Structure formats: C-alpha cells, structure tokens
Amino acid sequence: MANKILQAVNKYMIVNLLHINVKKCCYMYFSPNKRTNNELDADIDSYYLSMNNKVINRVSQTKFLGVIIDDKLSWKPHILSLNKKLSSACGRIYRIKKCLPESLYKQIYHSLFESHLGFAISVWGGIPNIQLKPLFITQKKCIRILFGDHKRYVDKFKTCARVRPFGSQRLDHDFYVKESTKPLFAKQELLAVENLYRLRCLMEFLKIIKTRVPISLYSLFTISHRKDNMLITPSPTKQFIYKSAWLWNEFCKIGSFNFNSSCNSVKHILQKSLMNAQNRYGVEWNDKNFTEF
To answer: Is the pTM of this model over 0.70?
Structure first.
C-alpha cells in the first residue's frame, strides 16, 4: 500500500514539473507499543519501500524541520543534540560577554540561547521534568555566566593560593558551592525550561482554538458542554493535545478566562503566574516551581 501511494505521489510530482530527491528520503516505523519486537521487525525488514525504482532507507531517527524524531518518540536524541548546541552557545556567550555592556546581556540570552531552547518546545517539551534536567542544568550555567556574581569568585577563588590571606589557602566547602540561580531568574524575569514549555504550549493552544487553524489539530480538542471555557482532556499522554488541554484547565482554575480573551492579555497573566510559581519556596529550586500556577 505504501509503495502504491509513493508511486502516485511520484506521478503527481512529475506532472507538476516537480522533483523528489530520493537520496534524501527515508522512512521510519513507529511501533504501536513503542517496544522492540524482534518478530515484527524481522517481518518489516522483509519488505522495502521504493520510489522511481530507488529503494528508500529505513532509519530509527531523523531530523525534520530542526527537530530530531526517533521511532520510540522518546525525544532522547533531540535532547542530547540540543544540549550540545546549548553548551556551545554558552561557550560563545562567555567569550563575547566581556566585550559588550551589561545592558545587552538579556538580549544576548534571548537571541543566542533561549531561541534554540524554545524552538518547537511544544512538540518535545511534554516529556517528564527529569528528562529535561540536562537542559535545565545548561540553562542555569548560561544564567550564571551572564548574570552571576563574578567578582565574588574572582576575589575569593581565582587568586593564587600563595597570595590569599592566612587561613584561606585551603579550599573549603564554600569553594565548591555554586551560586543559586533562582534569584537570578527572578531578577531578570526569565522562565526555566519547564515553565517555558508551559507558556509556549498554552499560547499555541489558544491560537489554535481562536483561529481554528490548523483544522486537523482543532478537531482533536473537545470543549466541555458544562463549562464553555474548559476542555475534556483525552487519555494522558506526552503529546501536545493532552498536555495543552490539561494545562489550560489547570490555568483556568486561578482566574476567569475564556476562549474569547485576547492572546496578549492571557500571555501577560500567564507569564506573571508562572513567574510567581517559579519564585516560591525560598531560594532553592522545588519541583512545585514547575507544576503550579
């Protein structure tokens, strides 16, 4: 069936004077239970897909529109690749920040770091927070580089041991304690990666509901008949459809919102609510900072 569809697609392209580069084409099999099944894999390997008499390779992961998709939809390859890109961005920021005024540091963060971190986050960001932890660690590193108290470290730790005051030659516990980033996030009004996902996810959801575009996604949401500003959530998954519906219902509990509210007003209230939740429970990070509104 797939080969017949590909043959029809190829004919359509030829008639419209278009060309498909088969060398760049690949296909992926998504297992229904997302677990390895040797018998099923052996059966699939006995078939092949082709277009214009050229075989299409089967892959376990591929990059599509800047996002690495794997056949288990675990997003682990994408998280690994993204974390390397963000670490490289931290190195570039560290090298150039001394040549720029501090007033531009926040713009540097948004342009060189958060632009990569937030790209398509509503697609892959629904994974558990423990899997987002590597990205959060790199994000905190970038925040320390740009907004941390560097004078404290230079004066106390970077000087040679021979010129330190008497009694301070030996490195104590304070040397290994990193500066808490939670006050830095609060001062600069920046969202952690977990809350950045919730912000982007809800705003994209609201735009889909208001404009009904794309209709393929809009048709998957079910508005409650009892409360016209609430949704009937589908079965729990990591996908955007469930996550956005569940987050919207939780968000509506803190205020009277509806689908006729303007996107700008909802975004302003949502950002303020997420920042308040992120700044609770002292200066140390808490799991509730990323689950509450």
So the answer is: yes
